[in-house]
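Practice set, problem 2.
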Amino acid sequence: MLSTVDLELALDIAESAARAAGALIRRAYRLPRHIEDKGVNDLVTDTDRVSETLIVRLLQTALPTCNIAGEEKGMRPTQPDAPLTWWIDPLDGTTNFVHGVPHFSVSIGAVDPQDNILAGVVYDPLFDECFRAGRGLGATCNGDPVHVSTRSRLSDSLAASGFPTDLRAEGNNTAEWSAFVPHCQGMSRMGSAALDLCYVAMGRFDLYWESGLATWDMLAGVAILQEAGGRVTRYGGEPLNIHQRGELVASNGLVHDEAMGVLASVRREGKGAR
């Protein structure tokens, strides 16, 4: 595992790469875009690809012994002795970007050879907010420490979630969403999983849940949330597996058990994600 000094250096490099990609995205935001479907409603733009290429180049140049996996091009050649593997989402919130909604991010997270979560950087290029965390180093936003909220009841909480790209699919989160509505003070669907996790980390949201997320969607945000004092599990309380597309529930820790109770009620009725 990297030393603390090395981890801080790696975070500095990842933040620089995220900010560089963010500047590129910011310029592209008001320009015409070429859009393709990777699947049903699963959009990708030229900006996604160019952003990933830039991040990969910057990380490989500064940290040539590390492995890199990106959403658009997959895993680069594996180095068995690599101290870190970086997982990149070059534009988390592509649908928002395509529709001109100013809420998306660059997400870069890292694990060690045993898949322990070590670091995360999430950058919002339009609001110029950079969230980052390293194991044992705490979590920050633009250098200022962040911590989860202290709300202890769902009835006082602002909850967030997301939906799959194919809204017609079975288990599309509508049952879970409906179940939470009468229990929470407010509900939010923002469209960037990485930023949702960061918002829980700094107390803007108290709870976030979603299913079907890929490693690059959640890794950086989970790193930041955990260092901010939050809790992350599967819906039933089982440990999160970052490589398993499945369930994620993230909270300030205080409303976690109550939230899992709501999710369990959906399962008992035979509804919800499978």
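Problem 2, part (b): a different protein.
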Amino acid sequence: MSRLFEFAFTDHKYRFKAYSTSGAIALISALAAHFSLRWDERDVILTMASVFCSLVAIFVLYYIFAGKSSAPGLKTPAKPYLFRYTMSIFVIVVAGLFSISTHNKIVPQVQAAIVDLRLFSLTSAIPHALYIRPSDQTQGLFRGRFQKLQSIADISYRYRIPVDPNRLVEAQKMIQSTLAVSGLSEETRQSGLIASAKLVDLATLRKTETNTEEPLAYSLNSTVMLPNRTIRYQGNHSRLSGSGQLEIAHSTVVFDGFDFEREKPFGEPFFILSSDSTVVVRNSTIKNTDQPLDGIIWINVQFQHSMIRVNGGPFTLVNVTFNDCDLRWLTFGPLGSDLQERIRKANGQPISFAFDGNVNPTSKP
């Protein structure tokens, strides 16, 4: 214990060497994992932290068992077998971390189990009396649940946690039953609708993860039909241009990381032919289009120099920006006026807004 006390409070020189060496090796390991092995942010941070802590622990053991003097500093070299012992521990720890991060599924399984438990706790029954006449306190309880579900969806997407689809369905049913309660405030309804959309997005990503590909062409000059498909188109801000149109019917489709741009304004890139389709557009820029928002979940999307319309169908905006857009077709009806006001107040900043299709549609005159 006295040697540990010396390391922590007295031997500044050795402690500096221990932390600086551990930090340098941990940083090199993290950079190698990121640039050579292409690990994601979570695994890189986990590796760096684990290597750093493991090395510091080895330096502490080395200090305690190898030094013979109680004075500050290590004046007596370590015995060979102690050095081999500590290095063996280091090699085993690093090998175990590498195995877990690249091959083993223990970490994702543990994460999935934790998320499933949280979903189960959030979808448990709420006393029926709270539904009869929801007070401000009760609505705060509802919003708290909705916000936690949104957080779970965001974390699960960011860290690719394989959430049980059945849990997502149960969570959506809980949200729907809560939103059916009369007397809910608009804030509570918006929180629930956005949570539901994020859960749909997460379920759609799970459903399409085994069928991910690039689009048929990067220049769409004709109509491309997507009937009865379950597919995800994955890109890295890949540019899709042309005057063509994607017509989607009875399908589940995700467009992730594609920028849709009309060379000449204005055209409608997405046309939803059936209400039973689930369409998600995320991480995209939409430019020079005349695009109705209806029937699509828009996540992290930027609309630029486009005409924005709503025709009364359900849609969801999550962190969506509107820059230099024509909002004239949003002046008719309560939905359009509300959305137009939100966009103008945001002044180019992201907004989140959801509509479930339960009011009179707004349309072009």
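Answer key, part (b): Confidence is low (pLDDT under 50) at residues 68-78, 360-365. The first helix runs from residue 2 to 10.
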